[in-house]
Each structure stands twice: as C-alpha cells, then as structure tokens.
Give the backbone structure.
Amino acid sequence: MSKIAFIYPGQGAQKAGMGKDFYEQFDEVKEIYKKASEDLGFSMEELCFEKNDRLDLTEYTQAALVTTCLAMTKVVEEKGLKPDVTAGLSLGEYCAIAAAGGMSTQEAIRTVRIRGILMQNTVPTGVGAMAAVLGMETRDIEEVVEKIEGAEVANYNCPGQTVITGVAEVVDRASVALKEAGAKRVMKLNVSGPFHSSMLKPAGEKLGEELEKVEWKALKIPYVTNVTADKVEDINDTKELLEKQVSSSVRWEQSMRNLIADGVDTFVEIGPGRTLAGFLKKIDRDVKVYNIQTVEDMELVIGELVC
C-alpha cells in the first residue's frame, strides 16, 4: 500500500498571488486568513495576493508562506487526501508540525511571525550571506568548508546542490575555494542573513522562549525534523529541535532518503513553487511527486490519489 508524505517549501518559494484561488473558493481558507490578519495586525490578504515589497522581507515572508500552505492543506485534507508523515524545508517544518497535529494553524502562524522577526534582526542585513554550490559532491564541499573558519553548510538539498552560510566575506572566500576545488557553479543567494549558521544561535535561544508559550498537542502522525533527518513521534521533542533548527544545517536530502527507505513512495508538495519536487527528482526518480499550488492542481491530485 502506498505511503504518502506531505512536504512543505521554505522561504524563497513565496510569490504574489499565492493561494488566492483557494481563498476565493473556500470559506474555511478565508477564515484562516482573517484570523491571521487579526492576530498579526496587518492584512494577510494584501501581503499574499498583491504585489508588494514586504512579501520578500523575512519578518513577513514566513507568516505569509505558513498561512498559505496550511490554508491549502486544510482543503486538501477535507477533500479526502491524508498524509502518513509530513516534512518541511526549514520554515516549512512548522507547516509539517501543524499538519501532523502538533500545533494549531494559528499557533504556527503566530510563532513563525516571531521567528521571522528574530532571524531578520539578529544579524544586521549585509553582514552575513549564503551561496548555493552546484555540481559538487557533498563530502568534497565539507572538506573545503571545514578548512575555512566561519564557513558552514546551511542546506543539504539534493545531489549536486548544497548551500553554504556565514559572514559575507567568509562565504566569498569559501566560494572561490569551492570553484577551485571543482564546483561547477557557486551562486550567491538573495537573502538578508546567514540563515542556518551558528550566527543565528541567539535567535534560536530567543525563539525557545516563545516556543514555551505554544500549546503543543500530541502528534497524530510523525513529522521529520531538519536537524537530524529523523522522524519525530513525541511532541515533547519538538521545542528543542525547533530552537536548534534556526542555526543547524537543514538535512533535506537525508530526510527524503530516510522517508523513502521507510516506504514512502508518494510525495505531495503543498504551496507555491516546485522546488521540493525538483529536489526529489534528483534524489530518487522512482518516487511519485505531485505539486499543489492551485485549486486545479489539487483537483488533479485528489482525482489520482483519493479512491
């Protein structure tokens, strides 16, 4: 029997208009956006549906993406498609936890709003940087990075794509060294900080204080943590893992390989973009990968997967 994982994108997937057709067609989605607007003190509809400069600012992006992805998920589940396990890349882990029953949609949105502010403000814009390393084996990247003080691996995305992080000058130096060591390409990412680096540990500590206030619930299904790439079945482990996650490497490739080894053969990416579907095709071409960005997408996936 097929095992299904719902997977959720991280920061960078956001785009103006995301989720708008779900909002227009489903009252339960309108209610999620309405509550998010009331809780956060600004219009979530304007942030997500209209072109604006705030959508790409970390302090707004995170709440917008989580609102969109969880609103979509509510409809998908009401249509009869349920996951056996969930996972999310970085920010997407909050969607995974909520979809697994570990926290409410409103708690997830409020928490990532605070997370986004902490990540935005802990390191001044321009001090840190991130770069994607393409076409180089992970172990070779690690060997180069280990020799450069302050350089760290932020994301293990898929074969041939790894992200490094740290102080901007250090990332520049590491980028040169990686090209010299055989990387096909090293691309500076358009981000406002050195996310998933030890520089963000103060943000994680402050986030930990906020996580103490969350009303955690017993998990209905497991989710996968970015920190270890393992399944989490006890919600009591979640707070510490989320605190660490801000400054730890995102072990996405390892997470997906572990799920596949555990028998998951069908992955449904819920949210804007197709980034995670692209990663999965490079990790294992034999698994089935679906993407739900629009109501039309959802109807096609429901038609194929719900008996």
Summary: The two ends are 13 Å apart (CA to CA). The beta strands are 3-8, 85-88, 128-134, 152-158, 161-167, 185-188, 223-224, 231-232, 264-270, 288-292. The CA atoms of residues 114 and 207 lie 7 Å apart. Residues 58-78 form the longest helix (21 residues).
